[in-house]
Amino acid sequence: MYKPSPVNSPIEFGLNELFFSTTSPKGIIRSGNDVFIKISQYSKDELIGTPHNIIRHPDMPKLVFKVLWDTIKAGKPIAAYVKNMAKDGRYYWVLACVFPIKNGYLSIRLKPTSAIFPLMDSVYKAVQTVEQAAGIEAALGKLMEILGSKNFDSYESFMTTALIEELKSRDAISQNIKHSHQAQQFNFDLQSSAIKLCKTIEQIQRTCKILGSHYISLFCKIDSFLALGCTLEQKSSFIIDLAQEISMLSLNASIESSHTGSLGATLSMVAGELRLRSDEAKKGVKSVNEMAKMMVDEIKRIAFKIASSRLQVEMIDCFVSELLNKAMQQQIKDGDLAEIQENCTMLLRTLLTTSRESVAALRGFVARLAQLDIHLEKLESVVMALEVVRKTGIIESARIGNKGKNFIGLFEQMVDPVSSAKRELNEFREAMFEVKESIREADSADIVILDALNRVLGLVNSIKLETDSEQLQKNYAASA
Q: In whole angstroms, what is the distance from residue 152 CA to residue 159 CA?
């Protein structure tokens, strides 16, 4: 297999030039769009049937592809920054998102422009240096060390952030770039062999824009999901500290009550009540904390699915626009139709799968939020009980005079943590409410999205290129 020598010069391509390729389970290229062929600079015949590593750049660590293959072989999607090499040796960077499909894989690539991207060249150089000196496992350790220093606790967390930030960056650079293809107006001669094909593709494009608007709307809500994830982590830390603080106050109250003798009998009961509430707080905190950790990971997976759906519908829009342009120039032949239908169907079914998974994950998350709500209610009742204990303790401390002074100090120390607990739990609920509203809107749009997807699939199945003779026969039959 021909392999060019690297040339330290980039190949430029536009934000709107999304491209895809499909491969067999072993990575053999089966198909791709015109942008892929153009940027790679190989002919279609040179690419089809060739291993996808024909475009691999020697600057890429082998580790990245090991992580990629391990992930997709497990049936999971992945995103990774990749430096590729064209036929002339020049390079081009992409963020590649790879999705398992029936009998193979789909890779969608976009031009990276986010603030994360400039870091990748030095990251990969550092990883490759370790890889060459100590092997793949050491390289993996180096990669995770670097990601950890950037506050990513896993590769999954990194790839989710990377995909979301790249999509946001595209929006910031060019407003609504994914739907910049305006519906094209055309007037065809009735004898044109491409008339029906063009009209069908135009219908597909219009329906895809309906789909796109729904996915853009859902993507705009992604920050509320990520914000809830941050809230879960922050509040989990807070309530652990709260439980420890209440536990210490409980212990000190027990000690002080033992110094008050018979006068402190009531205070001893108050200290016992505080100890009981402290134990309840510990249990409540443990439940909330465990659930929060689980939900943070779930939020990341949901966010990746939402961002993936957004990218997939962009890719469909770009591909359909590419097809419409070719059809209007009558560059599509009969022999192309089977591949066009196969690629359109594959892209749409991949979107449908991701969309179904997103909705299922969101509905499951609603159930988890309901469970979390129950745990929060229990924790709130403990906080309210602590407030009652605090007020009772102050009253009883004042009743026994000087011997109760230390007790008063202890119960006054409870003011801040109890007030903070009320505020923090209220903020927790507000974040949850915002996400619930986003999920409700996504759920209500699901039927519209499913209907649009089915309509597009129906249109794709109706794609046909009529020859001039067929059109003439129809015209003759109609006039007879």
A: 10
The gap from C-alpha 173 to its chain's centroid, in whole angstroms, comes to: 20
Six-digit token pair at 51? 């291993």
User: If DSSP states are collapsed to H, E and C, what string results for the chain?
Assistant: CCCCCCCCCECCCCCCCCEEEEECCCCEEEEECHHHHHHHCCCHHHHCCCEHHHHECCCCCHHHHHHHHHHHHCCCCEEEEEEEECCCCCEEEEEEEEEEECCEEEEEEECCCCCCHHHHHHHHHHHHHHHHHHCHHHHHHHHHHHHHHCCCCCHHHHHHHHHHHHHHHHHHHCCCHHHCCCCCCCCCCCCCCCHHHHHHHHHHHHHHHHHHHHHHHHHHCHHHHHHHHHHHHHHHHHHHHHHHHHHHHHHHHHHHHHCCHHHHHHHHHHHHHHHHHHHHHHHHHHHHHHHHHHHHHHHHHHHHHHHHHHHHHHHHHHHHHHHHHHHHCCCCCHHHHHHHHHHHHHHHHHHHHHHHHHHHHHHHHHHHHHHHHHHHHHHHHHHHHHHHHHHHHHHHHHHCHHHHHHHHHHHHCCHHHHHHHHHHHHHHHHHHHHHHHHHHHHHHHHHHHHHHHHHHHHHHHCCCCCCHHHHHHHHHHHHC
CATH homologous superfamily, domain 1-175 = PAS domain (3.30.450.20)
Which residue do the tokens 């449908």 mark?
352
Q: What is the mean pLDDT of residues 209-235?
A: 82
Spatial distance between the Cα atoms of 10 and 89, rounded to a whole number of angstroms? 9
Cα 349 to Cα 103: distance, rounded to the nearest angstrom? 13
Give the Cβ contact number of residue 469 at 10 Å.
9
CA-nearest of 274, 266, 269 to 249 is 274
For residue 303, what are the contacts with CB-CB under 8 A and spacing of at least 6?
A: 160, 164, 222, 225, 226
Q: Strand 91-101: give its sheet, edge to edge.
A: 29-32, 19-23, 104-110, 91-101, 78-85
pLDDT in tens, 36-76: 999 999 999 999 999 999 999 999 999 999 999 999 999 99
Q: Could you tell me the pTM of the whole model?
A: 0.82
- pLDDT mean across residues, the chain: 82
Dihedral angle sign, alpha carbons of residues 16, 17, 23, 26:
negative
- Domain ranges within the chain, ordered by starting residue: 1-175, 214-461
